[in-house]
Amino acid sequence: MAANSHTTRKTTPRTARTPRDLAPEVREQDDDVTAAEAQELEATGRHITVDLCGEPVRVVPAGAWPVSAQRKVREGDLDGFMAAVLHEDDYDLYVELDPVLDEFNQFVTDAQELSGEPQGKSRGPAGSSRRTRRR
Fold it and tell me: How far apart are CA 45 and CA 101, in angstroms?
């Protein structure tokens, strides 16, 4: 068998990147910033602010959540998921708040909506609205 591009291809290992590596830098918010300026700062920052148990926490936008973090949720490792997606300074607050499952679910939903990245299964293509006749 002759060698071709499929059999001789060399791969280089890819270094693992955290959501923090993928997102742009965070800028601290000033107290005299207007609401519009705050939204602009948040839009250009690497984290969005979402309420968890009534407290604001910074989280990586849902589109930048790594597959490994989503796997942790499916496996029931909620602490591991939060460690992967929360700003490192807000993880201790999460532990202190100790949210119940409903509060955790609301947090994830809010983060997805604010990110504009709904997670989950797509409904797939819609069926035809036109009826066809059998021959």
Answer: 28
Task: Tell me how long the chain is.
Answer: 135
Greatest pairwise CA separation for the chain in angstroms: 72
Q: Is 70 in contact with 84 (CB distance < 8 Å)?
A: no
d(CA 20, CA 101): 25
Q: Residues 50-63, buried b or exposed e (16+ Cβ, 10 A)? A: bebbeeebbbbbbe
Instruction: Kindly list the averaged pLDDT for each block of 10 residues, start to end, along the chain of length 135.
Output: 57 61 48 49 71 95 92 95 95 96 95 76 58 71
d(CA 127, CA 129) in angstroms, rounded, equals 6
Q: What is the three-state SS of the chain?
A: CCCCCCCCCCCCCCCCCCHHHHCCCCCCCCCCCCHHHHHHHHHHCCCEEEEECCEEEEECCHHHCCHHHHHHHHCCCHHHHHHHHECCCCHHHHHHHCCCHHHHHHHHHHHHHHHCCCCCCCCCCCCCCCCCCCC
pTM comes to 0.56
